[in-house]
Amino acid sequence: MASKLGGISVLLVLFLGLWECEGQMACGRRMVGSRIVGGANSNAGMWPWQVDLQDNGVHVCGGSLVNENWVLSAAHCFPDTSTTLRYQVYLGRYMLNSINQAEQSFRIAKVLLHPSYQDPHQGFDVALVQLDRAAVFTDSVLPVCLPTSAVLFPEGMECWVTGWGDVGTSVSLPAPGILQELQLQIIDQSSCNQMYQVPTSLHPTTSNILSGMICAGFQAGQKDACQGDSGGPLVCTMINGTWVQAGIVSWGDGCGDPNRPGVYAYLPAYSDWIKQTLPTLELYGGAQNMIACSLSVCLNAALSLLLVALLR
Fold first, then answer.
1. Active-site choice (140, 230, 250, 271)
2. d(C-alpha 201, C-alpha 61), whole Å
């Protein structure tokens, strides 16, 4: 009898251990499967962490939900933090100009800009926004995972940017303003910097891609984030299916021009500041998370087998 109960105990502990590991990585999961420049309409609920930031009822920026109380966005979306009482934060929103049954509306309790931020071109274009109350997680409202400094997003990796920004230079997203999605390729800092050193007829001046920045797009252009997408997430799906945010839409020269891919705040470079600011936020560490969970499950199983042996 003891042996049979012991076997059941081992299975139960293994199940609980796996369930606990899954719970630790509850971010970055979406319940829905399958106009940024060159993008397409998304499906409702496809990007449940997408945030709409409005100032006096006008869309100004995007953002991403990272837990029930905090949103991540770009520092340049808040040129004057004393005016944030005018802002409204929408979660679960799909269309800008129509009724969204799944949306939740919030005011801003606090905005924290990275202490080194001065201008997007100088980097540190990161902001944490505290909601005035906790969000309720639903199929349409879920958090994205943020990476530790150890997570890599290599050149050529396919990722997605989402937002309600312009669909071309000075061309607004047409009504009803459906959330746009666009698949882009990661361009590493060095390669992107070389592109931005090429003078063009539209942009004869050059810019530097600094540490803490990463680019996404294509050297030929045509597909890019644009005005109004600022603060929105660049997300990538990892090998275990978890969606992890690689960057924040920060700046660029034009929209979809050759040799001018979009520039993003590179989140692994800011993970320490994010963790210091939000100590309870669990960051995604890729293989480290899986190893830690496997060790936890194995330890629990070993303790259960020891208990079985003692009961015999």
1. 230
2. 29
